[in-house]
């Protein structure tokens, strides 16, 4: 995706260079930075040096350079080789020095400047450069129940995109819309709402190919019918044990009391 082209001209020396103001690339994909030039009339073939730099023209750090010599048998024919993630897709001999960047990341969001140097006719470099923007397509990632440290439970929907898409919550008509909290970064966001038991929750976004949505059903926890809860069972067992112990003690006391009464009667 290219913006309008800008053209840097040096009329006195018959130099022309055309580059886009801005290029948009997708995160993790390859991107092409176009650069075309028209050099002054050359009386003979000259060696060409291609340079790409970032941040500043003339003084910015060089990320790619190559030398194309007139004699193909000479060493130094490296304009067809990659330098890390950078490679030249254009042909300098055809006045095209377009640069390819592989697997772009947000760290690649910079301004790029192309430069061509002829061994005898001078050099030229774009003054304004090309700004690279990275695009992340809007995508609905997941919906789930989130439990905070305080014990509060929320229904949360995670999305990504640049900028992150707006999440729309779809609720049954008889459920009032709860308050929504949103946490967002440069390319991701989480939207959360307080839950109500036994309710369907649906979050929805507008994606590149239409609407995307996911649904989750939150069911209140219930104890199975016909089963005794563990706390009640534990209490019952404890009381039963105490009752048995008391019964044994009373029986022992009764027997001892009866024996003592019998002894007194004999006397």
UniProtKB/TrEMBL annotation:
<dbReference type="Pfam" id="PF07686">
    <property type="entry name" value="V-set"/>
</dbReference>
<dbReference type="InterPro" id="IPR036179">
    <property type="entry name" value="Ig-like_dom_sf"/>
</dbReference>
<feature type="domain" description="Ig-like">
    <location>
        <begin position="28"/>
        <end position="130"/>
    </location>
</feature>
<feature type="domain" description="Ig-like">
    <location>
        <begin position="138"/>
        <end position="217"/>
    </location>
</feature>
<protein>
    <recommendedName>
        <fullName>Ig-like domain-containing protein</fullName>
    </recommendedName>
</protein>
<keyword id="KW-0472">Membrane</keyword>
<dbReference type="GO" id="GO:0032956">
    <property type="term" value="P:regulation of actin cytoskeleton organization"/>
</dbReference>
<dbReference type="GO" id="GO:0005886">
    <property type="term" value="C:plasma membrane"/>
</dbReference>
<dbReference type="InterPro" id="IPR042836">
    <property type="entry name" value="SIG15"/>
</dbReference>
<dbReference type="InterPro" id="IPR013783">
    <property type="entry name" value="Ig-like_fold"/>
</dbReference>
<keyword id="KW-1133">Transmembrane helix</keyword>
<keyword id="KW-0812">Transmembrane</keyword>
<dbReference type="InterPro" id="IPR013106">
    <property type="entry name" value="Ig_V-set"/>
</dbReference>
<dbReference type="InterPro" id="IPR003599">
    <property type="entry name" value="Ig_sub"/>
</dbReference>
<dbReference type="GO" id="GO:0045124">
    <property type="term" value="P:regulation of bone resorption"/>
</dbReference>
<dbReference type="GO" id="GO:2001204">
    <property type="term" value="P:regulation of osteoclast development"/>
</dbReference>
<feature type="transmembrane region" description="Helical">
    <location>
        <begin position="230"/>
        <end position="255"/>
    </location>
</feature>
<dbReference type="InterPro" id="IPR007110">
    <property type="entry name" value="Ig-like_dom"/>
</dbReference>
